[in-house]
Structures are given as C-alpha cells and as structure tokens.
Automatic annotation (TrEMBL):
Highest taxon of the lineage: Bacteria
InterPro entries from the UniProt entry: N-reg_PII-like_a/b
Protein's UniProt name: DUF2007 domain-containing protein
Organismal lineage: Bacteria, Pseudomonadati, Bacteroidota, Flavobacteriia, Flavobacteriales
Matching SUPFAM superfamilies: GlnB-like
Length: 58
C-alpha cells in the first residue's frame, strides 16, 4: 500500500483531495489505479490528478 499513500500525498500537495477505495467497488466518478488500490478524485480533478501522477511515475 506504500505507493498509493505516496500518490495520495502528491495529489494533496497539488490541492486535490483523494480517497482510497477498495478495488471491488463498482460505481466510480473518477479513479486512478495504483497497485491493487484505487484513488478516487472528483470528476473535475481527474485529468489533473492523472497528469500529476504520470509525471511522478518511476
């Protein structure tokens, strides 16, 4: 779960709130998948969140 926590902090540092969600949840508004976890963000922030996390990918 280490990577998902780092991603959450990166998003929060950019002003985007995110929430960890179980991978089996069916209904989503916007999600970024990391490992077997999902970070939920509001739909309006999805593209920005994806961009931020893509930039920090190793």
């Amino acid at each position: 779960m280490h990577e998902v926590q780092i991603a959450k902090v990166k998003l929060e540092s950019e002003g985007i709130n995110s929430y960890m969600v179980d991978e089996n949840l069916v209904y989503t508004v916007g999600a970024v998948f990391i490992e077997d976890y999902m970070l939920m963000v509001v739909a309006d922030a999805f593209d920005k969140a994806l961009s931020i996390l893509s930039l920090h990918k190793t």
